[in-house]
User: Fold this.
Amino acid sequence: MLKAAVLVSGGGTNLQAIIDSIHDGRITDACIDIVVSNNPGAYALERAAKAGIETRVISPKSYPDRPAFNQALTDFLKERGVDLIVLAGFMVVLPEMLIKAFPNRIINVHPSLIPAFCGTGFYGLRVHEAALARGVKVSGATVHFVDEGTDTGPIILQQAVQVEEGDTPEILQRRIMEQAEWKIMPKAIDLIAHGKVTVKDGKVYISK
Amino acid sequence: MLKAAVLVSGGGTNLQAIIDSIHDGRITDACIDIVVSNNPGAYALERAAKAGIETRVISPKSYPDRPAFNQALTDFLKERGVDLIVLAGFMVVLPEMLIKAFPNRIINVHPSLIPAFCGTGFYGLRVHEAALARGVKVSGATVHFVDEGTDTGPIILQQAVQVEEGDTPEILQRRIMEQAEWKIMPKAIDLIAHGKVTVKDGKVYISK
Assistant:
């Protein structure tokens, strides 16, 4: 049974998709061991509580400086002994020591087809604003392992989504969540839980 | 009836897709007025001849320098009075005077989902080599209007295509041709022929 920590900061819709996928059997052999938020007011914490999942707030405001927060977050996750860290809208720059402690065991979902509209400055609505500004007809989402770069880690799954005329960044964001993020993130967790995902030379291979 | 010039340099599989689409009615209200090749040995010229389409070779080797070739190509297409120029594997840097003479009336197909894997140096197999090197799970093709930049013009249509494990650049290239390029290029010509494509602020709008 794979033990996952889900890191959140806000509404937690991706967390909810994972919870629902475990409940309805789209994810098997995995559980959410803990939900960690940097923000005590995150609605994601309520979602976790409703699902009976343990939560922990680790806020930078509770520590004298950023290195102390980074150390606390890393120590907590290492001591907890989780197998996988899932970034589900975690709006904190991930500590390098945490990335090094969990090589190819941290996954993130990015709301575009990497390498389009990714890297520094491309997060949240900005991704969709940039896609609409370029006038693309297809966008999507990417689940990838997290490495030291920004959106540079090995790609696990991608799902394309149509851009429609009249889309606002908000409408496109919602469609990409519904048609891509909430599907491929649970699917990636299920594949990892079943030992089907391997990384070689920076690329992901998925066995049948 | 829209009169198109199709510019080729090689095998002409995209030209064939357009010819077939006219024959079977996927393109209506458009005809190929002329096929122009810079290369007298292009197999595309045979495809055109078999379909009863007039051809013309305009080779840089027949002119004293590049400006003279550029002028000849531009003059020919202007005098011919074509409504649309279709780049179907035309391996020549398009003269700026030609681009200025046909604003938003030159279209190209690029074998990726722009803005991924496009720009200077990304052509032919190099596009697919780069996509496989990054380990993307989705690629595709883009039909766009040609402007002064490289792959920067307004996007008309895009089609996503799955990358499969074991893909070589050649296999991925062929799948993207079959599942994307040969579909969206004829579709874009048909939409343009029916006056359904407009460009505003660098973005394409398609009316129903």
